[in-house]
Amino acid sequence: MLKHHYTHFLNANQGVQHYACHSHHYWPDVSRQAMLDYWDDSARFVDDKWGYFFAEKVPRLQSHIAKLLNTNLPEQLVFAPNTHELLFRVISGMDLQSELTIVTTDSEFHSFTRQVNRLDEFNNIHVIKVPVQPVKSFQSRFMDAIEYNDPNLVFCSQVFFNSGLVLKDLDALVSAVKNPDTLIMIDGYHAFCALPVDIEKHRNRIFYLAGGYKYAQGGEGVCFMHVPKGYLNRPLYTGWYAEFGELQKFKSRKVDYATNGFHYAGSTMDYSGIYRQLAVFDLWQKEKVTVAVIHQHVQQLQQAFLNHVFGLKQSVLTESRLMMVNPENHGHFLTFELPDASITATLHDYLKAHKIETDYRGNRLRFGFAPYHAIADIDLSCLENYGG
Ligand SMILES: Cc1ncc(COP(=O)(O)O)c(C=O)c1O
Predict the structure, then answer these.
(1) Same domain, 327 and 346
(2) Which pairing describes strands 100-105 and 77-80: parallel, antiparallel, or unpaired?
(3) Last residue of a domain, one of 268, 284, 300
(4) 161 lines ligand 1 (CB under 6 A)
(5) pTM of whole model > 0.70?
(6) Can you say how many angstroms the Cα of residue 26 is from the centroid of all Cα atoms in its chain?
């Protein structure tokens, strides 16, 4: 589809079928020039480069992302090198000495899971994890847990990292949170730039997290959070960028915060990711590439992949092991649940030896798809000789 934009990564990996793109996409060629531009601008502007970044680069990237989320609130976006930093900043603004309840799932990415497991060690913090399986009843069980526990924080992925399954109804979930003081945080990393996302209705209610390393193709170091106006707590974990632009004003020892998304900013970071991400979104704009078009392409790839694999004489990647309930509403990777972690690791290694890149989490093997894939490239015939 857009293969000609990825010549550097494709040439460096000839003969490889890269199905680990749910973890990290290849970077489009324009991102290489963006890295050089970052260097050149650093040389050109030296100390003044921060002013330039904040006047030129940050607002333009905010504007692209606000459009992709359909919020029309670019100023409510804040950047950080990773999502962990952002989510922990919000958590650190809660009253950690009071009784706190967090309702989440058993399928959140490690950044959040590890953090809440640690918080759960405190007697006053209660973490309720609703199992995603069986997925058909997940949404209603999750909403019941919210109603029953009246939590201080609800945290849920839009697409679950360990299956590709999708939270069915974000609107219903947000409506289920009746207490206006409850913070709602959606981890959109596996949805952003994969599935068409529209959070317009909830832009004043939810924190939305995502980043560039996966489907947005900007590489690592460029994560963001949409911050709902009116939900500005006072993060304990705060950096001086949270006062950026206001430093002249805040002369006292009182810790004050910006009133837009930068309320949750940290400190000095490497802005090359911002350059890369901006170059990718500018390219999409120029070429009229939309998430809907990418999504449709990936859906076709997934269907072709499944037809191919299920048509082979093999018994390891079977229909019954595929974790998918609705091909029309699924993340951009397919997950096969195998009997155990060791079988999964062996199969992963076998595929890797045949230049088929996948990844796995425990006993779940994942195959991701991207704009730089073509149906004609799909070839897993080596499975017919697999003895594992
Ligand atoms: C759902 C989800 N959230 C977040 C992340 C990344 O977390 P962080 O930005 O803290 O490294 C990943 C990475 O794979 C993920 O799958």
Answers:
(1) yes
(2) unpaired
(3) 284
(4) yes
(5) yes
(6) 16
